[in-house]
Amino acid sequence: MEVLAFDHLVLMLRDRLEAVAPSFEEDGYCLTDLATHNLGSINRLIMLRDSYIELLGWPQGRPPVRKEIADSPAGLDALVFRSTDAQQTYEHLKRLQFDVNPVQHLERPIMIDGKSHQVCFETVRFATQPIPGFRVYFCQHLTPEYVWMDHLLRHANGAWTLDAIEVRARHPEIVAQMLASLTHADVLGTDAQACRVALPNLHIDVVPDATVANPAIAAAVLADDRGKRWLFDTKLH
User: CA dist 102 to 33, 54, 90, Å?
Assistant: First the structure.
């Protein structure tokens, strides 16, 4: 089967999203307008060439509507892979005996040239996460033309692509093999017993860390169009 591309990285900001998001703009990122999903969550996005970073949360002063994010701590929270057919993805995962939920429809409104449109997605989520410690799910974009728009890719700091993601785990080979099986990717050995999962548009490095109780998404690396790389600041400090 074809190796899946990486779709987006979720930064969970819980009820602080509206307060924290402007600091990313101060760092030179172009953020999408605040949007509300049909399921009650809110987000702003940092759009990149072939993926994006989602700042996710819920309105301050209100209880979270979505249980799966209500239980998520602040920080790098989810790896989302791109599906070209959400129903087929669901059926494939069921055949592999993963505890997976039925396909879920999400949408959010967007204004373009004064006209309202709906950005629509189909997602496939796990009832029981295959990797304890962070969320993994799949997203099919039904309206990608409303997501990757040229003006949203112009970041003052030069950000162009999400180049790499680092996951820390006590047993990196187990985590890497699970990520590879979910995405049909290969696992490559790297130095110091780390493992690399090679996807079409980035790589995920799973590195050994005996101090973590469960695997964790530790860092993300961005790059500009000339190859300059830097760590993504999650603004949680």
Answer: 29, 23, 7
